[in-house]
TrEMBL record:
NCBIfam families: sec62. It comes from Lophiostoma macrostomum CBS 122681. The lineage of its organism: Eukaryota, Fungi, Dikarya, Ascomycota, Pezizomycotina. This is Translocation protein SEC62. Its main location: endoplasmic reticulum. Residues 1-41, 61-95, 317-396 are annotated as: Disordered. It comes from the Eukaryota. It is a multi-pass membrane protein. One of its GO terms (biological process) is post-translational protein targeting to membrane, translocation. GO terms for cellular component: endoplasmic reticulum membrane. The keyword Nucleus does not apply.
Length: 396
């Protein structure tokens, strides 16, 4: 005797084909017998029962479609009541361009960031919303009718969302500059203090603390003008043989003058070097003659002084020491003015400092370091050189 048929997976009737499996002839006959039995229970023929099943399936599909449409209408009504619009990027429209031009003209306190290895301007949404709700926007809207009306915060957000809708500005967030460089042979990019590296976020929001970057660069008439000028310049150089004779002659004289000037500079540099080499042995440390061609100074400053001696390491140290002493004296004067300000007379003149100034206290001798010779007279007062140093300022 054969074993009874086992039920299929997930409670399927025995003999039914599994999903994705082609039914066998026996399974087809079994399904036909089941349809005939179901039709006989309802008092219908098999074709009438099949048509009834099709009608029921169609009604269920239509009911699902109506439910989805009602749900979409409810969501749309809620968005309209809340004053928010979904962001779906598309081509720029005139209203978005008008809003972008207005915000670009406002002081949004932008900061430079790095986006896809390019420098962009980033701003906060809070300042943009504040600009859209300002009297300046109302004044600009009276002149430009393309600007949308802004009455409250939701309408201001809707006006701002025109920027990401038209891909004029997008929301970004800060990322690590070394992100994405793992496993590469090249070194990490040098990090600049205060310069963020950002990336574009998928969800575009209009919260106050959200940052956006400008992808809209404004009017390009300057770039177009520069491009036309460069094209005209190139064409003029290419068509140089067709120039009038007096223009070509003028260009030749001008080029000769420039070559002569360059040669003069080279000649002066060689003469200065020869003079320095001669004076370096005859009158050390050496003499330099103007102009100072290799210093980072202006044109007139390069001729001052007319001549100068070569600076030695001692001269450089003396300059640094003098600069340090001057700074210390300035700090000492500030400290003395802060501790005791001189009294002023009726006319505003300062009273003489020596009139009521008490005698300075005797300076005690500084302790001798270990291994040094003792002083000749222990009771003698050791006075330091009269130089304003940082140490003396600290003792006062």
């Amino acid at each position: 005797m054969s074993a009874p048929p086992q039920p299929g997976p997930q409670g399927q009737p025995p003999g039914m084909p599994q999903p994705g499996q082609q039914p066998s002839p026996e399974q087809i006959q079994q399904m036909q017998r089941q349809l005939a039995a179901e039709a006989q229970k309802r008092g219908l023929t098999v074709p009438q029962y099949i048509e009834q099943l099709k009608a029921q399936a169609m009604q269920q599909h239509q009911a699902q479609m109506r439910a989805q449409q009602q749900q979409a209408q409810q969501q749309q009504q809620q968005q309209q009541q809340g004053g928010q619009q979904p962001i779906q990027p598309g081509p720029p429209n005139p209203a978005a361009l008008a809003v972008a031009n207005f915000l670009k003209a406002q002081d949004l306190k932008p900061r430079t960031v790095i986006l896809d290895e390019k420098r962009k301007e980033m701003f906060r949404v809070k300042r943009a919303i504040r600009a859209l709700q300002s009297p300046a926007y109302e004044k600009a809207r009276s002149k430009n009718k393309l600007l949308p009306e802004v009455n409250d915060r939701p309408t201001a957000e809707n006006a701002f969302k025109l920027l990401p809708l038209s891909l004029l500005a997008l929301r970004v967030s800060k990322v690590d500059p070394s992100h994405g460089h793992e496993g590469h042979n090249h070194a990490k990019p040098k990090r600049v203090k205060g310069l963020w590296t950002v990336r574009i976020e998928q969800h575009q929001e209009a919260n106050d603390d959200v940052h956006y970057v400008w992808l809209y660069e404004g009017s390009q008439w300057k770039q177009k003008l520069y491009a036309v000028g460069a094209l005209v310049l190139v064409m003029s150089v290419v068509l140089f043989p067709l120039w009038p004779f007096f223009l070509r002659q003028g260009v030749w004289y001008l080029s000769m003058a420039m070559l002569g000037l360059i040669g003069l500079f080279f000649g002066m540099a060689i003469v200065r070097l020869i003079l320095f080499i001669i004076t370096m042995f005859t009158a050390p440390p050496g003499l330099w003659l103007y102009p100072n061609l290799f210093e980072d100074v202006g044109f007139f400053d390069s001729f001052r002084p007319v001549w100068a001696w070569q600076e030695t390491p001692e001269d450089i140290k003396n300059k640094k020491r003098a600069k340090k002493d001057k700074k210390a004296a300035k700090n000492a004067a500030k400290a003395a003015g802060a501790n005791g300000k001189p009294q002023k007379s009726k006319k505003g003149a300062a009273a003489p400092a020596d009139a009521d100034t008490p005698d300075p206290a005797p300076v005690q001798s500084a302790p001798q370091p270990t291994g040094s010779e003792p002083a000749a007279d222990a009771g003698a007062v050791t006075q330091r050189p009269r130089h304003a140093t940082v140490e003396e300022v600290e003792e006062e």
